[in-house]
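Rotation project, supervised by the postdoc (A.L.). Task for the rotation student: set up a whole-complex structure prediction and record inputs and outputs verbatim in this book. Inputs entered:
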Amino acid sequence: MLSKKNLQLNDNGDLHHLLAIEGLPKRIIERILDTAESFVGINEREVKVVPLLRGKSIFNIFFENSTRTRTTFEIAAKRLSADVVSLDVQRSSTNKGETILDTIANLTAMHADMFVVRHSESGAPYLIAQHAAPHVHVVNAGDGRHEHPTQGLLDVFTIRRYKKDFTRLTVAIVGDVLHSRVARSQIHALTTLGVPEVRVIGPRTLLPADIERLGVRVFTSLEEGLKGVDVVTMLRLQNERMTGALLPSASEYFSRYGLTPQKLALAKPDAIVLHPGPMNRGVEIDSAVADGSQSVILPQVTYGIAIRMAVMAILAGATR
Amino acid sequence: MSTMDNTLPDAEALFAELKAQMASSIAFDAKLVGVFSGGAWLADRLKAELDGEHEVGYIDVSFYRDDLSTSGLKSNVRSTQIPFSVEGAHIVIVDDVLFTGRSIRAAVNTLFDYGRPASVQLAVLVDRGGRELPIAADYVGMPLIVATDLMLALSKNDGGKFALTTEPWKAR
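Outputs recorded:
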């Protein structure tokens, strides 16, 4: 049985579901990062497939659209030799009135071993994990404003590859933290791994009121917040936020919070720039930065596959 | 030889025997591929001490094992490194202990995902019997009978000297 306290771990303390970074022990995060390191090599060879998950069936269930995340999960599953089926549930049974749990029950009856779930409601993957058959594993691929754990893991994996030691870093996360599950997962991952200073930078309207509770320093000035940082994570400004009262206009946002080469120069000279994608060039990031020598945005995408392979391989090997 | 008296043979002596067998038989440019972790140490020592030009690679068989569902993924997976072309190469897989043969099966499969070698041989420090697959070693430091409930493994001290150790099998 899974304990109520941490639905993600089994009785041996092994990862059984990946639902959130919050509450995940450091040893588990480090194990995922170390395992991903071995998968990086697999992804660089001519035969990019290992037979580890042969015979396992993985269902990607996306109740909310995401081409990139769904594709990287698909590639990761295929490189592990799993059988993978991707369902765009937006256009499927839920429109005919089927509940999430009925959808899951039907797919389990088709002998699913793992569900990768994206949902616009925070907590939806928890609901599925609570009701899943004991042998079934659930991976949260982004739920509402809550978390996007594999994105947080690939972010810290990318940071570790360029910066090695977490315990000497200052990391800034810039933009719409309020609506960002990416920010939340990355903050939890960074603090668990011992990063001494995590900063969030953005307009007050886009920062959660109680964000300091997560152990971060808050800046409303990009220039102030970027001083001396080793890592800058730019968050995507979702266009739909622009229509409400939260922001005046894209061009005004860019002038205050867009990352230009001049502003990046305030960070350490060897600072790296991350972005979870998809990017809005000219809104939160200048093309000269996005395509510049300090950008590690495309390596993030590459490492995302290794991270998802590691997560799926570890989960598939966890038994009760 | 049996270990009824609980004394294990001197691993350095077995290494000398293994090296002598290989010196007279392997191709001058045979590649040595060590299976982590004991086989990797052996491959490094063999490269340093054998005549010829022997490039070295390392294999972690974790992603090719057949027991994921029962044993899970090993917690400290190492990165397989094959820094030469496997295509057409003469390769000697090096491991510390040959037992069921399952690790070697996995190592051969790993190798073939890097190319089609001209030949593959197997060198082991100890053959403890107990095969579950049709696999045999070409070079053996010594055959040794060990109680089935004990795991036999190679260790290396700070000075780089080899020793054999036994311990009860771990759950994982």
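Student's summary: DSSP finds four helices and seven strands in chain B.
Supervisor addendum: The beta strands of chain B are 31-35, 56-59, 90-98, 119-127, 139-143, 150-156, 162-168.
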